[in-house]
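quick q for whoever's on today - can somebody do inverse folding on this one?? i tried earlier but teh output was garbage lol. tokens:
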């Protein structure tokens, strides 16, 4: 079942990503919320939503849930490392918010690299 993650768990990690984005000359995008255990569209229902990946970002500007990041797993460790830093998964999805509707194309790869995760960009080159 999808549930919203307590913002206190991820607030500092998202702020760190926003600062990295700003330092790279990008406009930081606010995260509306993070759903764990499924998609934000399924919060309050017994289902997990209709996605099959480890995570997704609602990054289409017309999506009423724009800014939500959805994690299929339920562990907060998928979002924030034990030291409080943003996980690679969180950076990956936040990069989708910085580069809406670009999939894993050039704009997304530049965004995830600016967030300090060039290995994510290389892993998805050509996808």
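ok took a stab at it. sequence:
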């Amino acid at each position: 079942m999808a549930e919203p993650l307590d913002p206190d768990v991820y607030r500092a990690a998202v702020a760190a990503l926003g600062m990295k984005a700003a330092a790279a000359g990008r406009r930081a995008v606010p995260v509306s919320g993070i759903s764990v255990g499924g998609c934000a569209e399924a919060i309050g229902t017994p289902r997990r939503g209709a996605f099959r990946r480890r995570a997704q970002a609602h990054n289409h500007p017309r999506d009423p849930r724009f800014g939500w990041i959805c994690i299929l797993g339920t562990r907060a460790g998928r979002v924030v490392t034990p030291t409080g830093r943003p996980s690679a998964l969180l950076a990956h999805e936040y990069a989708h918010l910085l580069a809406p509707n670009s999939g894993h194309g050039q704009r997304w790869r530049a965004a995830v690299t600016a967030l300090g995760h060039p290995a994510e960009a290389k892993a998805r080159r050509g996808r």
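fwiw The chain has four helices and four strands. also The longest helix spans residues 7-23. so keep that in mind when u check it
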